[in-house]
Amino acid sequence: MKKPIITLLIPTKNRYTMLMRMLESVLQAAGRIQWQALVLYADIDDNAQKIPTIFPQTIILDENKFFPKRKPSWPEMMQFLLEKTNSPWFMYASDDIVFMPNAFVYALDMAQKYSGLAGGVAMAYRNASAPLDSPWSQYGIDLTLGDQILINYGLINTNIAKSLGGFDTAYNFYCADGDLCLRILRAGFRIIPCIDAKVFHDDIIDMTKKTKYKYIRKRYCFI
User: Fold this and answer.
1) What distance in Å separates the CA atoms of residue 171 and residue 121, rounded to the nearest whole number?
2) Separation CA 110–CA 198 (nearest Å)
3) What CA–CA distance (Å, rounded) separates 168 from 182?
4) Residue 37: how many CB atoms within 10 A of its CB?
5) d(CA 154, CA 94)
6) Which residues have CB under 8 Å from 107's CB, separation 6+?
7) So what's the pLDDT on residue 205?
8) pTM for the predicted model, two decimal places
9) pLDDT at 74 over 70
10) Rounded CA gap, 99 and 30, in Å?
11) Is the per-residue pLDDT at 66 higher than 50?
């Protein structure tokens, strides 16, 4: 297999059906773009072991092997997977998303349009759980401190991220994504919005979780 252009970093909690749906959507999203998925899988079972036979682009890593006797934080999992990534671009992904057709094609085209300047490309997404009159029910991107673009879903330049130290494991949860985006911007690179690259976030299950955010997140929607 050729060297991947995009690597997906995916921690999963044994949600096999959702993970398979997500990987299936990547096929239509990537087209001819070479991609790879590094999956940090909790509690590997027979289903997990057969995934690479269905999707040869996928590498399954046993969470219990690399993080014995404890549950790693999201930044720890992302940093672990990033260190194993050699593709030009990566994406922190999850098993509860579905990519729309050509999402990666559009995003990569945008990155190449701003070659040398793009530290990342933010894909537009919407949440399944959002009320119809909420901005989160529309496809849009997120903003953080100073109305800076935040990558909730999208591509990040691997070399730039690694040169900045990757994910800060001092954070307990997702604030590490906002921190990385802000460091990319402060280093002089741009995060480019790509409204044609769309991601559907099936967040119904995760709505039961409570998350505290250190960084302010705003919503900018595209109608």
Assistant:
1) 23
2) 13
3) 12
4) 24
5) 12
6) 121, 123, 154, 155, 194, 197
7) 62
8) 0.89
9) yes
10) 9
11) yes
